[in-house]
Amino acid sequence: MSTQKDNSAQYLISTVTKRSGVKSDLVRAWERRYQAVSPTRTAGGHRVYTDLDIARLKLLNEATSSGHSIGQIANLSLDDLKKLLQHESSAPVSTYKSINPPAAVTSERRFLAEDYIEKCYAAVLAFDAHALESHFENAIVELGPQLFIENLLTPLLTQIGERWRDGELRPVHEHMASSIIRSLTYILRNNTPCAANAPRMIVTTPIGQLHELGALLAAIIAEFKSWKVTYLGANLPSEEIAAAVKYTQAKAVTLSISFNADDLVVPRELRKLRKLVGNDIALIVGGRSAGHYQAVLDEVGVLKIENYDHFRLLLDQLAAQHYAELPM
In a 3-state reduction of DSSP, which class is residue 43? Predict the structure, then answer.
């Protein structure tokens, strides 16, 4: 590759990031995976970009923010990118996305998620919090919050847990990753206001269950399904959960159970919670250790989450029931 482009201004990636609005890691990812831009290098090995590169990145950033797949548009010309965005701004919402079939987007973004899992795990293993946060932020941009949660974050956390049990990682690695995920909650959460009469939900973990990430992700998913969610963190006794239900007039409580201690605490708390809130409040339970308590879940009439799609189905069913019961 040559080290100079004729009659072109040269910019380092820090300037490109500021002018294009695309973060440096994402610029490199688009360059490496899709050849979206082709920078040259200085004698010292630094990438340098042109005004044309910056213009392309700005248009690509705008198009991907509107839902287009980077893999399908990365090699479009500037004119084609402009036409695409012009068509998008003038076309009805129901028709313009026909160039970007959902199945193709999902397949490609899942591939991207796998790539990000490798990079994120390497950052966890190196105990590099800055790199992990940067990878997370870029992945949220490329994948969107829901695919980020389901196809990157969940398998990554499973991998971290497995490697921790195998001795490759220490508990401090998991704590570092969890802390960064919590700090990014404001990006992941749905900022669209709920309807005034939207169903309400309490999300937490029972007393003794200290791992809150499963509950946090459940809260985010419920918000995307237009529920009004009150998230209470972890480790709450049933009396406090029931009080929150009363204060918010919640229609459902979602609990995450990620740890099996082979004790009687979880069964006791579930029985007590059912008695306190009554049978009209839906109790929903998920988490990697929820199945260990299947007997008591059946006893108290708990809805057990099988997977994300099942959780969304439960939310839709409960919301439909809620709206049907509202006065006309």
Answer: coil
Yes or no: say if 254 and 214 are a contact pair by the CB < 8 Å rule: no
Alpha-helical (H) ranges within the chain are 13-20, 24-34, 51-65, 70-73, 78-90, 93-96, 102-125, 129-143, 145-147, 154-166, 171-183, 185-188, 213-224, 238-248, 265-277, 294-300, 308-325
Half-sphere exposure (Cβ direction) of 16: Cα atoms closer than 13 Å:
27
pLDDT band at 240; cut points 50, 70, 90: very high
- Taking only the tens place, the pLDDT of each residue in 246-273 is 999 999 999 999 888 767 899 999 999 9
Query: What residue type is 183 in one-letter code?
Result: S
The set of residues, in sequence order, having a beta carbon less than 8 Å from that of 276 and lying 6+ positions away, is 238, 239, 241, 242
Q: Does residue 134 contact residue 154 with C-beta atoms inside 8 Å? A: no
Amino acid at 178: S
CA dist 126 and 12 (Å) reads 27
Q: Are residues 242 and 273 in contact, defined by beta-carbon separation less than 8 angstroms?
A: yes
Is pTM beyond 0.90? Reply is no
Hey, is 100 helix, strand or coil? coil
> How far is the C-alpha of 171 from the C-alpha of 71, rounded, in Å?
37
Distance CA 3, CA 11 (A): 13
Two tokens, residue 266: 């979880």
- β-strand pairing of 47-48 with 40-41: antiparallel
Report all structural domains of the chain as residue ranges with CATH numbers, in order of start. Answer: 13-99 (1.10.1660.10), 102-187 (1.10.1240.10), 189-325 (3.40.50.280)
What are 143's two structure tokens?
């994948």
